[in-house]
Amino acid sequence: MIKGIGIDITEIERIQEMIQKHPQFVIKILTPAERAQYGKMGGQRAVEYLAGRWSLKESFSKAYGTGIGSAVGFQDIEIVDNQLGAPIVTHAPFNGRVHASVSHTAVNVMTEIILEEKDD
What we know:
Layout: E1 2-11, H1 12-21, H2 25-29, H3 32-39, H4 43-64, E2 78-81, E3 87-91, E4 97-104, E5 108-116
Antiparallel strand pairs: 1-5, 2-3, 4-5
Helix pairs in contact: 1-4
Binding site for Mg(2+): 8, 58
Domain 4'-phosphopantetheinyl transferase: 4-100
Organism: Limosilactobacillus fastidiosus
């Protein structure tokens, strides 16, 4: 049974500006495992990865019904790429199945999260 659906669109340039203005931005958004993947990337791909994680976590919080804030923070959700490059939620405050999707253009990143409750 579907518990929630969340979508988000983020401008990649906005994330690039945040990286430049606030050096701690990456640490605030990414978990250690996500930072390990991010650290292996460079240039535009690294910015796209960070924008994607920001947007995925925003989508998760919307599907969860709380938004990012005191109930769910960026460090409460971990999403890493599997060996094929697909985003996999490895940690989140949800006990069911989490479906994640991310897509980029040169300007935007769009993400969707679907929360599916476990069958009893």
